[in-house]
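Retry 2 of 3 after timeout on previous attempt. Resubmitting structure tokens to design endpoint.
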């Protein structure tokens, strides 16, 4: 099982930017589909974006509300996955989790398919 630790969450004003990091240990993250999933207060967890495992092309997919603003990437040498967030909005507020899964690449948007999760990092967008 891979262990995941997120960092980089903080409070930021609307329109600002943040980069979240997810460092893996125990296994190579390049062998997994890696997702960022968020949970706003009082709401269910929501898929944000994912990068498919390197052996399947390493392509990315995003939920519509973050397309053009968020970017998922990975640095295999550092065994780290990133979520670059720009033009942040108050509705982006929440706890952001990274998660690893071995599912077929067509199912990377399905939260239930991820079986290794980090502890989460808080992002607050407020003026």
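Retry 2 succeeded. Sequence:
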């Amino acid at each position: 099982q891979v262990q995941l630790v997120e960092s980089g969450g903080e409070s930021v004003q609307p329109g600002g930017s943040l980069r979240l990091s997810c460092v893996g240990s125990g296994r190579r993250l390049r062998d997994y589909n890696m997702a960022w999933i968020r949970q706003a207060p009082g709401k269910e967890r929501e898929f944000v974006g994912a990068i498919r495992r390197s052996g399947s092309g390493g392509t990315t997919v995003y939920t519509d509300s973050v397309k053009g603003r968020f970017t998922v990437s990975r640095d295999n040498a550092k065994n780290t996955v990133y979520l670059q967030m720009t033009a942040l909005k108050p509705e982006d507020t929440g706890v952001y989790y990274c998660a690893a899964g071995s599912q077929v690449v067509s199912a990377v948007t399905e939260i239930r398919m991820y079986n290794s999760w980090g502890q989460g990092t808080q992002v607050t967008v407020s003026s």
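Attempt log closed. The mean pLDDT is 96.
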